[in-house]
Design goal:
- The complex is a heterodimer of chains A (318) and B (331).
- Chain A is mainly alpha-helical.
- Chain A is built from 14 helices and no strands.
- In chain A, helix 4 packs antiparallel against helix 5 and helix 6 crosses helix 7.
- Chain B has 331 residues and is mostly helical.
- Chain B has one domain: Orthogonal Bundle (MetI-like fold), CATH 1.10.3720.
- Chain B has a two-stranded antiparallel sheet with strand order 1-2.
- Classes of the chains: A mainly alpha (318), B mainly alpha (331).
- The interface between A and B is large, with 49 and 42 residues.
């Protein structure tokens, strides 16, 4: 177990190093430089430009820039080029805004997928099974932004309530009313974020359940006359749940992703929109840091999922 | 005894021995596929979409196209679908084909029907080229990893370890964010989008091919091919790749759906094909400013993307059922 943890940690560190190199190269080898972002601005004279480049080490060779950047990042001193604020502080602030979206979206996904998927497997081929299958494909195929606008049209014309932003403009900042307003604004983007997840996860639940249901011990349980509910929910479901325990780890990367599209449609000041704005402004430190943190989360996520697998399934102890 | 003899002779066709049914693997699979109605409708929509996209390319390009997607008629802006143009204010050459705005007009009075036709080709080519790139890279790397897996480079790391490591690295990138970054930094062009989507989505294909190759290379027909002295390249591409393509084909079909969605999302964010060229994503993106006044600008391209992507997904799932006998429903 310890050997596995050690080996896997080393492997993941090496992967992380290459991710940092590749993302750095992608950003810096692309044509154009941040100092040229606004070439028509008369304030950007040649001297200012040189000073700017020197300030941000853009005049140094690429490997030195790389070292400078990750030294600053790891010591927490990295500054955004756009507004000179510490990158980590900036990201953390936006992260707190994205967090409720992520939590609510994940909760909706995980609580709805199982009740939707399990009956579809138990009554395979029934009308319910076929219609949820089609609905799942529909949700996977719909472009997120289109779905968002359909929901906005529906909600606004039907309920006459504002949906954009984190809160209604000018609303009093305390009390019950405020809380409900925040929740209401949270709900629609979360549902949108969860829609695709429900579609994928409920299909996965269904397939997993079908596989278990076709095994011999389930047939034996049925044959000895147990009530159907007990067979399905006690004998089959418990074993079908096994792979999902490990999926908790894979949820982690979603923490930082934040949906660029949903957040920009709903003017939600979260991670995704910050990343999008950083790309537009060529704010390299922010782009690279977001990338770096999300790579770390992916690696930690797969690590947790491997560990959980070993804990819940004794067959694959390495 | 005689009755058995009789039965035997009666089942054997006259003048011949018992024969296996003359059905090829393709016919067998096709019959299986036809039974899946959802997948079949996916295929039909796919074929229709292909024809529309090809027709759209022919009808909207050239100096004097039959459907002009770029013709601006400011006096005719935001007309709803199926409305007739105001003939008095238009010059004869500005009147839309068939004398009607089939899908309405946008905020510059451009005919949405023509723009949708033009955009269909973009969606189609982005989907196919991007996935084509991904499949080629995936098959190459997966094949090398699976076939030469045990060879070592400079005694340091095995070929397999190197390629698996590369796959792990690529999987660490948040893919949409990476695509968005690269597309935003590079000059706007449709080819950059295809290449970037292709370069960031080959990992699935590589994993499938590698897994298949690991089991294929131990099989007798590969040993036989090697014993015959065939070259490695011939063994890989003539004998092993065709046997490993089934899961790749399925993931490629579903990958096309994903690539079309990604392109639409990029266009929506303003990083797609540069204007005035129309894509379904940027028609929708322009239309969002008139969400309540001109909802057709949102609904027409939105439903078009939805239907095409759905068709590819259903077709892909149908293929999966057919090509993977283990998943087949037993009747």
């Amino acid at each position: 177990m310890l050997a596995f943890i050690g080996r896997s940690a080393i492997r993941k560190l090496i992967t992380l190093f290459f991710v940092s190199v590749i993302s750095f190269l992608i950003i810096h080898l692309a044509p154009g430089e941040p100092s040229q972002i606004d070439p028509l601005n008369p304030k950007f004279t040649q001297e200012v430009l040189e000073r700017f480049r020197k300030e941000f080490h853009l005049d140094r060779p690429l490997y030195m820039q790389y070292l400078y950047f990750y030294r600053d990042l790891l010591t927490g001193k990295s500054l955004s080029w756009k507004d000179n604020r510490p990158v980590l502080e900036k990201i953390f602030e936006r992260f707190l805004n994205s967090l409720p979206l992520f939590i609510l979206g994940t909760l909706i996904t995980w609580t709805l997928s199982f009740p939707v998927g399990i009956p579809a497997a138990i009554r395979r081929g029934s009308l319910y099974d076929r219609s949820t299958t089609f609905l799942a494909y529909l949700l996977i195929s719909i472009p997120g932004f289109f779905f968002a606008y359909m929901l906005i049209i529906f909600v606004v014309t039907r309920f006459h309530v504002p949906v954009i932003g984190m809160e209604t403009f000018g609303i009093s900042s305390k009390g019950w009313h405020f809380l409900m307003d925040r929740l209401w604004h949270l709900l629609i983007p979360s549902v949108l974020g969860a829609a695709g997840g429900i579609a994928v996860l409920s299909r996965y639940v269904r397939n997993q359940m079908l596989e278990v249901e076709s095994q011999d011990y389930v047939r034996t349980a049925k044959a000895k006359g147990l009530p159907a509910d007990e067979v399905h929910y006690k004998h089959a479901l418990r074993n079908a749940l096994l792979p999902f325990v490990t999926m908790f780890g894979l949820v982690l990367p979603g923490l930082i992703g934040g949906s660029v599209i949903i957040e920009s449609i709903f003017s939600w000041p979260g991670m995704g929109r910050m990343a999008y704005e950083a790309i537009l402004a060529r704010d390299y430190p922010v782009i690279l840091t977001v990338n770096f943190i999300s790579a770390i989360l992916v690696l930690i996520g797969t690590f947790i999922s491997d560990l959980l697998y070993m804990v819940v399934d004794p067959r694959i102890r390495l | 005894m005689t009755s058995i003899e009789n039965m035997k002779t009666s089942t054997v066709p006259e003048g011949g021995a018992l024969e296996a049914p003359r059905r090829t693997l393709f016919q067998e699979n096709w019959n299986q596929f036809k039974r899946n109605r959802l997948a079949m409708s996916g295929l039909v929509i796919f074929v229709i979409f292909f024809i529309i996209a090809a027709a759209g390319l022919l009808l909207t390009s050239g100096t004097d196209p039959i459907f002009d997607p770029a013709l601006v008629r400011l006096q005719e802006k935001l007309r709803p679908p199926l409305s007739a143009p105001n003939f008095e204010t238009l010059k004869p050459e500005e009147v839309p084909r068939f004398g009607i705005y089939l899908f309405g007009t946008d905020d510059l009075g451009r005919d949405v029907f023509s723009r949708m036709l033009q955009g269909a080709w973009v969606s189609l080519t982005v989907g196919f080229v991007a996935v084509g790139i991904a499949v080629v890279i995936g098959v190459m790397l997966g094949g090398i990893a699976g076939y030469y897996g045990n060879k070592r480079i400079l005694n340091l790391i095995s070929v397999d370890g190197l390629i698996v490591g590369l796959i792990d690295i690529m999987l660490c990138f948040p893919s949409f964010f990476l695509i968005l970054t690269v597309v935003a930094l590079l000059p706007a062009s449709i080819y950059n989008i295809m290449i970037v989507i292709g370069l960031t989505s080959w990992m699935g294909a590589a994993r499938f091919v590698r897994a298949e190759f690991l089991s294929l290379r131990e099989q007798d027909f590969v040993t036989a091919a090697r014993a015959l002295g065939l070259s490695d390249l011939w063994i890989i591409f003539r004998h092993m790749v065709p046997n490993a393509m089934a899961p790749v084909l399925v993931s490629a079909t579903i990958g096309i759906a994903g690539a079309i969605l990604t392109e639409a999302a990029l266009s929506f964010l303003g990083f797609g094909v540069p204007p005035p060229h129309a894509t379904w994503g940027n028609i929708l993106s322009n239309g969002k400013d008139f969400l309540f006044d001109a909802p057709w600008l949102t609904f027409i391209p939105g439903f078009a993307v939805l239907i095409v992507v759905l068709a590819f997904n259903l077709f892909g799932e149908g293929l999966r059922d057919v090509l993977n006998p283990k998943l087949r429903e037993r009747h």
